[in-house]
Design a protein that fits this description.
Helix_hairpin_bin_sf; about 170 residues; endoplasmic reticulum; two-stranded antiparallel sheet; 4 helices; Guided entry of tail-anchored proteins 1; mainly alpha
């Protein structure tokens, strides 16, 4: 049987800080890097963008009065390329947004699993022994131990909630 050491107030507080920082600053730091790594524009998309820029340059350097046939042909090609590029860009953006949502959900699930595993391991262990009559008569001392720890002690669940609330207000 595996014995789990009793948690210290500081270790739970540090874990609460780490998970709160991961929730708060993880997505803005991680999402762009992973999305850029996985969902890059394809070489064909980049070639189409370069061709679109070339067509725009050609159109701007062509006189509509002197070279009307060339100008009209370039204008039609530019419009068709722009429509195709816009469609590809919209599809790529949708893929990137879906990936960002999945990454953010994964980070949230990791934080939730860490909290659940800590709660599962330490739910019956007292985090802090309270002085007698700390909150009034003895029948009221069970309030602090809600979550499974013995009466007269501070439970893991309550200490975790205190730590998370404090850290979230500071961050």
């Amino acid at each position: 049987m595996v014995t789990i050491p009793a948690p210290t107030l500081l270790s739970v507080f540090v874990t609460a800080i780490i998970t709160a920082l991961l929730e708060r600053f993880g997505p803005p730091l991680v999402i762009p890097r992973l999305v850029n790594l996985v969902h890059r524009p394809s070489p064909a998309h980049r070639r189409r963008a370069a061709h679109l820029r070339d067509l725009e340059h050609t159109l701007s350097s062509t006189s509509a009065q002197d070279q009307f046939a060339l100008w009209a042909k370039t204008q039609r090609a530019l419009e068709s390329e722009r429509a195709a590029y816009t469609g590809e860009a919209a599809a790529l953006l949708a893929e990137r947004q879906a990936a960002a949502r999945r990454i953010k959900t994964t980070i949230g699930l990791v934080v939730l699993v860490v909290h659940f595993l800590l709660w599962l391991a330490f739910r019956t262990l007292p985090m802090l022994y309270l002085p007698p009559a700390f909150v009034g008569p003895a029948p009221l001392s069970w309030i602090w131990s809600i979550g499974g720890s013995p009466p007269g002690t501070l439970s893991f669940g309550l200490w975790w909630t205190i730590c998370r609330t404090t850290v979230r207000r500071v961050i």
